[in-house]
Amino acid sequence: MTRIRARRLDGLTSSAIRDLLELTSRPEVISLAGGLPAAELLPTARLAEAAVSALADPASAQYTETCGLADLRTVIAARESGRLGRAVDPQQVVVTHGSQQALSLIAQALLDPGDLVVVEEPSYTGALQVFRAAEATLAPIPVDDDGLDTDALEELLAGGARPVLVHTVATFHNPRGAVLSAPRRAHLASLAERYGFRIVEDDPYGDLWFGTPPPAPIASHTDRVIRLSSASKIIAPALRVGWLLADRDVCASVELLKQGADLCGSSLTQRIAADLLADTAWLDAHLTTLRGTYGSRAHALTDALSAEFGPDVTYSPVRGGMFTWTTLPLAVPAAELLPVAAGLGVAFVPGDAFAVAGDHTRSARLCFATSAEDELAEAVRRLGAAVRAAGDA
Ligand code: PMP
């Protein structure tokens, strides 16, 4: 019989968020669904300048090293050294096709079918897809406003569970908006050392803080961390430049798999990323703009939610990143509200898209980064109309 698909695809479903992109790209829909940076803040002029300058050297149009362009790895190592408060060797950096590829390669490099992976509940869907494709067994641990509940994790471990990896979006959680508190970061690091698992600190949003910077990365507490970050949210997703920071053994395994996955990343976009990341005066000014705009939008969104739904709505405190997690007064599951809402010109991601085993049917992830303040206010008015329409149906 002709094989149509391998067994590893059995448990996989298409990402609800990717599927939503078609719906939300209709011009009449205000989308709070995607995690898209604001289009008008993408630094296209600076990118064009860097591209022209890069292409003066034909090496920018050539293949490059699998682990990434040396200049870019050096810039990333310097950035990470500052952040972690210790020297980071560029040899500990592997540049990947977005941090999504880093997640995928880590799972392939470290997981055998049936291995236990602790994930957050709710969780970043892109991580769930990767761990499911690796045929891992998932153990969900709840996330509250202070991030992953490390006491619940300790209980799981004390009960004999031995995860290979613990995946966490510790800073400005996707979808929950939470920040893992400093004591919980230290607790998680100590658990990793006691029980021998590795932490995947998935951190694409850490630079996007509004009031005060987040606590130091988990990787500053222990070297049992594989740290991922990305140029996607601070420069542009189209560069497809992400990176992982890990010990040399993990880097070597990831590099071996990356040879088979894509030979190497794009020399051109890596050179552009190196130029922009090294230009700290430009980058600091750009980050200040992003923080200011996203912070104002976050507050515009939560103010509009309070005005529309009063005490019937809850939303996570917005301290940075791109999302707030909202629980609405719904007569129907959020997934059933979505087509009604889309018909009225607003889209969001239903909470269940992020579920591992939990029930998030009354919740939704709302992205405040993409739309202007007046659009956010209008989106919430439409959401209110959709909630009422769904309640009457
Ligand atoms: N991790 C998290 C938590 C994310 O939210 C995303 C993007 N939505 C990624 C990783 C992947 O981003 P990229 O591949 O663009 O770096």
TrEMBL record:
GO MF annotations, alphabetized: transaminase activity
In the UniProt record, does the keyword Transcription occur?
Answer: no
Q: Which InterPro entries match?
A: Aminotransferase_I/II_large (IPR004839), Class-I_PLP-dep_aminotransf (IPR050859), PyrdxlP-dep_Trfase (IPR015424), PyrdxlP-dep_Trfase_major (IPR015421), PyrdxlP-dep_Trfase_small (IPR015422)
- What sequence ranges are listed for the domain Aminotransferase class I/classII large? 28-383
The cross-references to SUPFAM superfamilies, in alphabetical order and at most eight, read:
PLP-dependent transferases
Instruction: Tell me which cofactor or cofactors this protein depends on.
Output: pyridoxal 5'-phosphate
The yes or no answer to whether the keyword Transferase is present is yes
Q: Write out the entry's keywords from A to Z.
A: Aminotransferase, Pyridoxal phosphate, Transferase
Query: What name goes with this protein?
Result: PLP-dependent aminotransferase family protein
Species: Rhodococcus zopfii
Phylogenetic lineage? Bacteria, Bacillati, Actinomycetota, Actinomycetes, Mycobacteriales
